[in-house]
Amino acid sequence: MRYSESKEKTAELLRLALGHMGRHAAAFNPVTFTLWYEYIAGINPGLTTALDRLIKNESSLDDEAVIRLYKKHIAPADEETMNTIGGEMERLMASMAQSASHTGDRAGTFGDQLTGLTTALASRDVEQLKPRLTEVLAGTAEMKSSVEALRKQVTSSQEEINRLRSDLERARDDAILDPMTGILNRRGFEKRIESLLAQKPADGTSHCLVMLDIDHFKSVNDTHGHLMGDRVIQAVGEILRTSVTKAAHAAARYGGEEFALLLPDTSLDHSIHLAETVRTRTKAMRIRHRTSQEVLLTITISGGVAEMKADDDAASLIARADAALYQAKRDGRDRVTCA
């Protein structure tokens, strides 16, 4: 589900969205509201970046700009979209193949013309040489034109391929990334843990899972509001994202205020150390007022670490990491416990 905010929070988002909408030229319609809703809720990093850039340049959004932003950053990449991208790719490849075939045919004809010229030169027949030269000169011009057309086609196709690749990457990311934090969502986590379990660990290492949960998160929402709660989740997501430095490792938002680190080919000691790094970085973080820079709150996080066993499946590995996490909670929070 794309929108999971409570009734109280959506009421707050509605009020703020209407304020933004009133400052721009675009009509007050569901598309415009959705644009500003996702921007204020902080659940769409790509849209946030694009709108921040426009706001910084003091640009007023009209209907055309809103539709463009909506299509690029919000419209779902459904099966129809994927089929459209695939169809465009097929059309592009067919066009390139046709251009290459035409150039190849032209090259074959030009080769025959050169062979004819070579024969005429060998015979030293001046009368035969003259038309052959004329033919080759014309063929050279045609060949040059054909090659130039192919070059332009390749350049244009490369630009189109880059655009389609970007569309495909966005469709893929929309499916497995959490829009609020930019790290894996629950679906992405489940795909990654299944992949992790299917691979044998490298010699001297293991596969480990860290489950993490923000301490007393409900009180953050109750005291400071849901928008502040979102800022906390985004900040923790950024800590996880920047703490994971190995390409094979991954951070995920497991759900709500719970997160996970998937650590293939990693020792248990290193996994505990990484979890402790996240914990200490989170504790050192200060959430400040956007304008006054006054410190509004600090938070802590608890973690549980589990090392994969030979008979583990996803459910059993998650259960052991969760058990270690809740042991950390029972022991006083702001700590990491190993299963």
Overview features:
339 residues; 5-stranded mixed sheet; 65% helix; elongated; alpha+beta; two-stranded antiparallel ribbon; Alpha-Beta Plaits; 3 domains
Notes on the structure:
The chain is an alpha+beta fold. It folds into three domains: 7-73, no CATH class; 79-176; 186-338, Alpha-Beta Plaits. It has eleven helices and seven strands. It has helices spanning 7-22, 30-41, 45-56, 63-73, 79-123, 126-176, 186-197, 217-224, 226-243, 268-284, 314-330, and strands at residues 206-214, 250-255, 258-266, 287-288, 295-297, 301-307, 336-338. A five-stranded mixed beta sheet has the order 2-3-1-6-7, sandwiched between helices. Helix 11 (314-330) links the parallel strand 6 (301-307) and strand 7. The longest helix has 51 residues, at 126-176. It is elongated, with a radius of gyration of 30 Å. It starts with 6 loop residues before the first helix and ends with a strand.
- What about the largest sheet? 5 strands, mixed
CATH architecture assignment of the largest domain: 2-Layer Sandwich
Low-confidence spans: pLDDT under 50, at least 5 residues? none
Structural class per helix/strand content? alpha+beta
Q: Kindly report the average pLDDT value.
A: 82
Question: Class of the largest domain in CATH?
Answer: Alpha Beta
Name of the CATH superfamily of the largest domain: Reverse transcriptase/Diguanylate cyclase domain
Quantity of strands, as a count: 7
User: What is the H-and-E element order?
Assistant: HHHHHHHEHHEEHEEEHE
What is CATH's topology name of the largest domain?
Alpha-Beta Plaits
State the assembly state of the protein chains.
Answer: single chain
Which range best describes the helical content: under 10%, 10-25%, 25-40%, 40-55%, 55-70% or over 70%?
55-70%
Total of helices: 11
C-alpha geometry? elongated
Strand ordering within the main sheet: 2-3-1-6-7
Question: What's the N-to-C terminus distance?
Answer: 32 Å
Radius of gyration: 30 Å
Q: Which range does the strand content fall in? A: 5-15%
> How many domains, as an integer?
3
